[in-house]
Amino acid sequence: MKKNLTTLFFLVAVCFTANAQVTDEIRERRPQTTAPVSSDAVREGNWIVGANIADIGMNFKSDFFTLNINPRAGYFLSDNAAIGTEVQLGLDIYDGGETFRYGITPFIRYYFPEGAAPTHRWFGEAIAGIAGSSEEDSDGDSVFSGVLGLRAGYAHFVAQNVALEGILGYTRTSADISVGSGSSGLNLALGLQVYLPARTR
Q1: Are 166 and 190 in contact (CB under 8 A)?
Q2: How distant, in Å, are the alpha carbons of 19, 75, 183 from that of 99?
Q3: Beta pairing partners, 75
Q4: Which end of the chain is more exposed for a tag (fewer CB within 10 A), N or C?
Q5: Residue span of the signal peptide, if any (predicted)?
Q6: CA-to-CA distance for 35 and 194, rounded, in angstroms?
Q7: Is 79 strand, coil or helix?
């Protein structure tokens, strides 16, 4: 009986050890989901390159598909503050035609030190630029119209120089509709940004 208990105890100990090793190996192999680098990424002299994707969807009842994508590049003038340019690209496909939207909007972005953590940063952003669309009507559309916007966002760093972003913004433009009308509203966007360190001399 004593021998059986000793054997059972030995087998249980071996199983626990093997399970712990397998668990450690799984943890080492799983994809990286966070990185404590947020303060290094937003330093003076660094660059930011990436894109936001917003308003992607399909309405099956009206056969209406929409996609907006905004590639961007910026430069950190000082710690936490960047300026740059964003390209506005949009496409609506619907029964009977399609509309292509385009524009360029310089931006200024500030990462708040308050509430910052090693793995994430909150930021605010303002944009102002021009945009147009391929939409035409009987009165004729203006080639370009103004675009103004304010945004707030959250950047979560998933790797040394890569962050996923969620952005809520208010934009006003008359570029996508008839002359004399206005279009404004809230939109939610997701972005992927790459933070490139300054060159060392």
Answers
A1: yes
A2: 57, 32, 15
A3: 47, 83
A4: C
A5: 1-20
A6: 13
A7: coil
